[in-house]
TrEMBL record:
It comes from Callorhinchus milii. The gene is aida. Belongs to the AIDA family. It holds the Pfam family Aida_C2. This is Axin interactor, dorsalization associated. Residues 149-296 form the C2 Aida-type domain. PANTHER family: AXIN INTERACTOR, DORSALIZATION-ASSOCIATED PROTEIN (PTHR28654:SF1). One of its GO terms (biological process) is determination of ventral identity.
Length: 298
């Protein structure tokens, strides 16, 4: 519960709610005259950074619990070292016990939400003073690993599907920051049939392609997927000036397309239409999502 509260607090900063503090406590922060953001005094900045680092530690602990392949495990003993800091959070001014960066300030929007922001003018960078939006810009260590799950246990007569996401073609592929793909399985009404998975962040970009080369294990036997179900792939990337992660486009694969071997599928404009009612192609150019399917059956 405590971890949730801290994460909510840090998340609230991304939505601008912290500006309320500027109204209630003008002695500790003021509105910048040159930029539309809040500037805090050093004591408040230290407090916010400490909260952000605690959130990072909680994120690391969560990652360690969810994977058996974590390279930087954050142990329970490490977590207990945060107790005196939390108890004295308002007055804590010592060195933080772990070399971590504050949790990144990245607001991930629901499908369609970002549409209201896409047509806003880009904010100019720079300006004096440290604003709240400048505090949390470093990605949490380990977050680049994604949330992929292991393959389910095999069952006699049942088929499991591994999808290798090879690459995606985009005209501005080289400009995408921290790109990754969210994979989900939806029924005909857009309801999740399996846990949603995120790929690790892609680091290789060549020409008009972002390369992933990562295996995604579908978390349900194919025979148990309902009629009309589909597997969705949402390509997401980070927008530093707007400070949120946005869905750039999406693709999907229906049940009759599940066949061993290579497949390329079309890309569609956001927002993601899980019900597949109003689809609009992203481009007329021959740019697709490239996949390779592997079927496992006993």
């Amino acid at each position: 519960i405590l971890g949730y509260c801290f994460l909510c607090f840090v998340s609230s900063l991304s939505c601008g709610r912290i500006i309320t503090i500027g109204i209630l406590v003008p002695a500790i922060c003021q509105k910048s005259q040159t930029e539309d953001k809040v500037v805090f005094c050093p004591a408040v900045l230290l407090f916010l950074k400490t909260v952000g680092k605690i959130a990072t530690c909680l994120e690391l602990r969560s990652t360690a619990l969810q994977t058996t392949q974590s390279q930087e495990e954050f142990r329970l003993e490490d977590l207990k070292k945060l107790e005196p800091i939390i108890k004295n959070i308002l007055s804590y001014n010592k060195d933080f016990p772990f070399d971590v960066q504050p949790i990144p300030l990245r607001k991930i929007l629901a499908p369609g939400e970002e549409e209201n922001l896409e047509f806003e003018e880009e904010e100019e960078d720079g300006g004096a003073g440290a604003g709240v939006s400048d505090l949390f810009t470093t990605r949490v260590p380990g977050a680049v690993e994604g949330t992929l799950l292991p393959r389910l246990p095999s069952e006699p007569g049942m088929t499991l599907l591994t999808i290798k996401i090879e690459k995606i073609g985009l005209k501005d592929a080289g400009q995408c920051i921290d790109p990754y793909v969210t994979v989900s399985v939806k029924d005909i009404n857009g309801v999740d049939m399996t846990p949603v998975q995120d790929t690790p962040v892609a680091t290789r970009k060549e020409d008009m392609y972002v390369h992933f080369a990562v295996d995604v294990e579908i978390q349900k036997h194919i025979e148990r997927l309902p009629k009309g179900a589909a597997i969705f792939f949402e390509f997401k990337h980070y927008k530093p000036k707007k400070r949120f992660t946005s869905t750039k486009c999406f693709a999907f694969m229906e049940m009759d397309e599940i066949k061993a071997g290579q497949i390329v599928i079309e890309l569609y404009k956001k927002p993601t239409d899980f019900k597949r009612k109003k689809l609009q192609l992203l481009t007329k150019k021959p740019l697709y999502l490239h996949l390779h399917q592997i079927l496992h059956k006993e």
